[in-house]
Amino acid sequence: VLITAGPTRERIDPVRFVSNRSSGKMGFAVAQAAREAGATVVLVAGPVTLATPAQIQRVDVESAADMLNAVLRELPGTDIFISTAAVADYRPSHAADRKIKKTAETLELAMERTTDVLATVAARPERPFVVGFAAETEAVEHNARSKLMRKNLDMIAANEVGHDKAFDCEDNQLIVLSRGNRYELARADKLTLARGLVALIAQDLAARADARKRGTALA
Ligand code: CTP
User: Fold this and answer.
1) Neighbouring C-beta atoms of residue 171, cutoff 10 Å
2) pTM to 2 decimals?
3) Does the CA dihedral 138-46-21-101 come out positive or negative?
4) Catalytic residues, which ones?
C-alpha cells in the first residue's frame, strides 16, 4: 500500500513558501491501519512533525513535484494507492534564488498549476486500486462523487472542512463513495476512521475478486 500524507511546501524564495494547514494525521493513521491489516506500507510524507508508525517505510518530500516523483518511483508493485496528502494545487511560477527584499508596497505572486498526483496514478494503464480524499466546504457528497468520476478513482473519502473540522484536528467523519456503494464512518478519532476505511477498501477488493472469479467460472 502506497500512501501520501501531509501538506506540500512550494518555494517562493530561499526562506519563504506557500503551504496549507494539513497536519498529516489522517495519512499517518491510514498508514498505521494498513500495516495493522497486514500490508507492506510505503508512506510518502510532506513536511510534518509526526513520528513514523512502526514497521512503515517513510519517504520525506517537500513540494508537489517531489511528491509526484517519489510516488512514481515507489509505484511499481503497489496494489493500493491512498492519496490523503493536501498537495498544493498551485506553486509560484518562479522561485527566487535570493530572498525577496521588501522594496515595493505590494507584491504579486504569479502561480501555476501543479501536477495532480492522484489523477496521474489513476490514469496509468497498469494501476493499483486508487483511493482519493476530498476536503470540501460545501456540497460534500456531490463534489466528492464528481471527483470520483473525473479523476477515475475506485473510491473517495470525503469530509467537510471548516472551523474545527478535518484540518489539523483530532476527530473527523467521512463519507466513503465507491463506484457502486456509499458508506458513512461516524465521527471518531482519525485512527478509528482509518481502520474503518482500510476495512472498506479490503471489502471492495474482495467483492471484485469474487466477481472476477464468478466471471471466469461462467466463461
Ligand atoms: N491531489 C493530488 N495532487 C494534487 C492535488 C490533489 O494528488 N496536485 C489529491 C489529494 O491527495 C486528494 C485529492 O486529490 O486525494 C483532492 O483533490 P482536490 O485538490 O480537492 O480536488 P480538485 O480536483 O483539485 O478540486 P478542488 O481543489 O477544486 O476542490
Assistant:
1) 13
2) 0.94
3) negative
4) 20
